[in-house]
Design a protein that fits this description.
globular, 8 strands, binds adenosine-5'-triphosphate, disordered C terminus, histidine kinase, single chain
Length: 156
């Protein structure tokens, strides 16, 4: 499916806002069109938005720049010793701090599988006490900049 990233991210952010009553600010830098699976990409964005919602209290920010989508929160952050384990099944940072949010530690492993299925790369950068940024990089083979239309590389 062909997906116009800026419109798609805005739509996803709006539906998340509606569902959870949490503000999501979208900042579009450069949009592009990608060839991807809409439903998987939506689920992937939702997992990161949902973590941002659970582990922070302020507005959530999304930035779109070409084939990169960053989901940023100013929440509790992830200690550096845990950052390599959060994509493992059932891994949750310090049970005491995450108990009130519930969850099984399955969101991120699922995100990893969804990303693999659509050929995207996902990373998490975080600073404890300051916040977390989840980065989705869509495959460069499947995207073409906004000015091009039709098949990849073919000018309108
Ligand atoms: P669920 O299975 O409902 O998604 P979960 O949030 O515990 O539950 P993951 O999404 O896999 O599971 O996240 C794993 C752990 O990584 C979380 O328990 C939390 O400690 C940490 N984490 C993930 N995202 C963030 C974030 N944005 N800010 C702070 N900690 C986070």
């Amino acid at each position: 499916e062909t997906v116009q990233i800026s419109a798609f991210v805005q739509e996803t952010a709006d539906s998340f806002e509606q569902a959870y009553g949490r503000r999501v600010q979208v900042n579009m830098k450069e949009s592009c069109t990608v060839e991807t699976d809409r439903s998987k990409l939506r689920q992937l964005i939702y997992i990161f938005l949902d973590n941002a919602r659970k582990y922070s209290d302020e507005d959530i920010q999304i930035e779109v720049k070409q084939n990169t989508i960053c989901i940023r929160d100013k929440g509790i952050g992830i200690p550096s010793e845990d950052i390599n384990k959060i994509f493992d099944r059932f891994y949750r940072v310090d049970k005491a701090r995450t108990r009130k949010t519930g969850g099984f530690g399955l969101g991120l492993p699922i995100a990893k599988e969804l990303a693999e299925a659509i050929g995207a790369d996902v990373r998490i950068e975080s600073e404890e006490g300051r916040g977390t940024t989840a980065i989705i990089i869509l495959s460069e083979f499947s995207f073409y900049p906004g000015i091009l239309k039709g098949k990849r590389g073919e000018k309108e």
